């Protein structure tokens, strides 16, 4: 800083022993805040925050400069002075970083479309707009506009869900884990629920059927064996203490070979005869036959209800393609009991969820347009040729950005649906692979690349396997491709 009046520095003189006393020259904090370069920061972040950040930055710079000086830097080193605009530039960076949302967008090139860690389903614009409106306006969340009196938030989507599932009634909670918990707590607390040993699922995270059952106060009555369970296993186990027959979708594994499980339709007569409700945790709630879109078949909610399930639970943000929520569909008397459980109040959804869910469900009224309109289905049905064209367009740019240390190719690969939907069915896809070039100078080239991709303004999440980084382009929407390409330049070192 040149031309500053005397006393305008917060320069710290330090006793630096052998190197002798040296001082650093930093502008006073009030001069920084008064400088024109700082005015936009004050307008954006306010005086309190900007002042605190400026003080912290000056203290850091002072420490750094003293260290340099003590390490033998010349006493009159020009490095001992920094001009105000350079300081405000640093300050702007610090403040922007500190004020960045902790929840950030990223590119999901992992090859898993419904990635739980990346927030699962992406929603269509109609849902995005509905959520924005619900954020700004009071809403008839629990208020019946026609009658002018208190209503029930489940009513907002119940009619449509009944239409789409064939169920008599529905209720919505925070997620499917909550749906299962609430159902068990309502129907089987202090009593027994019968589950096949082949269906004692762990979904990942902390969701395990035996644990959730314990939390709901229900006693787990296991029947059959891991690979085979027969109708008579359920029949023999059912007794006066039995509150529920529970079937659970094996979302993330398959049992193959010498196997037998009891279908819902096979179990329904027993449940009816004994007067025991039959519940099915379907996991991903498919509302349409996916085969019509060239995808593998997944049992739909409607099929499950028609087969005789009294209650079906499923997620809103898996194959259904909506917001995070759990849906319980089934017999009206059982749903009424579930809604009276005080836990329902603790597990209910907010207006943003319902605002997003309603337009997503509405899309199902036009199943022929669903692959265009429902984002999840659009991503799942993208033909590999689309991704190949994208890969070929991006290939030279990525090659140039990465330089000679890396070998970049476009390659066929397979995506998976994710979130426990159809775990063994893979979708043909296309993308880019990056391997360390034979003569690469960098060590741990792939690990380094993975870190560089994460450090981008919009972090890129790929997958490392077989000594390569795989970037599956299925989830790179064509209208986001430009932003993806733009930031490749900052990847170059
Ligand atoms: C995914 C899944 C759950 C948990 O659903 P969340 O919506 O993640 O709470 C429960 N059961 C099955 C069978 C699942 O596939």
TrEMBL record:
One GO cellular component term noted in the UniProt record for this chain: cytoplasm
Enzyme Commission number(s) of this protein: 2.9.1.1
Cofactor: pyridoxal 5'-phosphate
Pfam families: Se-cys_synth_N, SelA
Sorted UniProt keywords: Cytoplasm, Protein biosynthesis, Pyridoxal phosphate, Selenium, Transferase
InterPro entries found in the cross-reference section: PyrdxlP-dep_Trfase, PyrdxlP-dep_Trfase_major, SelA-like, SelA_trans, SelA_trans_N_dom
Modified residues (N6-(pyridoxal phosphate)lysine): 318
Main location: cytoplasm
Cellular compartment(s): Cytoplasm
Catalysis: reaction(s): L-seryl-tRNA(Sec) + selenophosphate + H(+) = L-selenocysteinyl-tRNA(Sec) + phosphate
Pathway linked to the protein: Aminoacyl-tRNA biosynthesis; selenocysteinyl-tRNA(Sec) biosynthesis; selenocysteinyl-tRNA(Sec) from L-seryl-tRNA(Sec) (bacterial route): step 1/1
Signal sequence coordinates: none
Domain spans labelled L-seryl-tRNA selenium transferase N-terminal: 25-62
Broad class of enzyme this protein falls into: transferase
Top-rank lineage group of the source organism: Bacteria
Ranges that cross the membrane: none
UniProt similarity note: Belongs to the SelA family.
Function: Converts seryl-tRNA(Sec) to selenocysteinyl-tRNA(Sec) required for selenoprotein biosynthesis.
HAMAP family according to UniProt: SelA
Protein name per the record: L-seryl-tRNA(Sec) selenium transferase
UniProt organism field: Rugamonas apoptosis
């Amino acid at each position: 800083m040149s031309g500053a009046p005397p006393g305008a520095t917060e320069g710290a003189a330090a006793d630096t022993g052998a190197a002798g006393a040296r001082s650093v020259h930093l502008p006073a904090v009030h001069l920084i805040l008064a400088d024109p370069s700082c005015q936009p920061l004050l307008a954006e972040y306010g005086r309190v925050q900007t002042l605190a950040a400026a003080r912290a930055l000056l203290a850091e710079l002072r420490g750094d400069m003293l260290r340099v000086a003590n390490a033998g830097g010349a006493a009159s080193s020009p490095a001992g002075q920094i001009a105000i605009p350079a300081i405000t530039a640093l300050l702007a960076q610090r403040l922007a970083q500190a004020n960045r949302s902790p929840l950030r967008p990223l590119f999901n090139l992992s090859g898993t479309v419904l990635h739980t860690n990346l927030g699962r389903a992406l929603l269509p614009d109609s849902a995005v707009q509905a959520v924005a409106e619900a954020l700004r306006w009071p809403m008839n969340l629990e208020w019946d506009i026609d009658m002018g009196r208190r209503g029930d938030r489940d009513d907002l989507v119940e009619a449509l869900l009944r239409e789409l599932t064939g169920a008599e009634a529905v209720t919505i909670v925070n997620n499917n884990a909550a749906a299962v918990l609430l159902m068990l707590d309502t129907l089987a607390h202090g009593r027994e629920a019968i589950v096949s040993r082949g269906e004692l699922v762990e979904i990942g995270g902390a969701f395990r059927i035996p644990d959730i059952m314990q939390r709901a106060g229900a006693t787990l009555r296991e029947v059959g064996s891991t690979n085979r369970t027969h109708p008579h296993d359920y029949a023999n186990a059912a007794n006066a203490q039995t509150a529920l027959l529970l079937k659970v979708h094996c979302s993330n594994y398959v049992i193959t070979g010498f196997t037998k499980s009891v279908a819902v339709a096979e179990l329904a007569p027993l449940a009816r005869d004994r007067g025991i409700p039959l519940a099915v945790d379907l996991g991903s709630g498919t509302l349409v036959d996916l085969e019509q879109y060239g995808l593998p078949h997944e049992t739909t909610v409607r099929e499950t209800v028609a087969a005789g399930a009294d209650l079906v639970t499923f997620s809103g943000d898996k194959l259904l393609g909506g917001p995070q929520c759990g849906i319980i569909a089934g017999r009206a008397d059982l749903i009424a009991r579930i809604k009276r459980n005080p836990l329902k109040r603790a597990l209910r959804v907010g207006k943003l969820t319902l605002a997003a869910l309603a337009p997503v469900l509405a899309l199902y009224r036009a199943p022929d347009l669903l692959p265009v309109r429902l984002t999840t289905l659009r991503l799942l049905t993208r033909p590999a040729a689309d991704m190949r064209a994208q890969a070929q367009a991006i290939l030279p740019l990525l090659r140039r950005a990465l330089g000679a240390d890396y070998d970049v190719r476009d390659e066929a690969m397979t995506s998976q649906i994710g979130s426990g939907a159809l775990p063994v069915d893979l979708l043909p896809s296309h993308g880019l692979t990056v391997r360390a070039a034979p003569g690469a100078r960098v060590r741990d080239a792939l690990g380094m690349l993975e870190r560089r991709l994460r450090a981008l303004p919009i972090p890129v999440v790929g997958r490392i396997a077989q000594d390569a980084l795989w970037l599956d382009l299925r989830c790179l929407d064509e209208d986001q491709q430009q932003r993806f390409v733009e930031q490749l330049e900052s990847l170059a070192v």
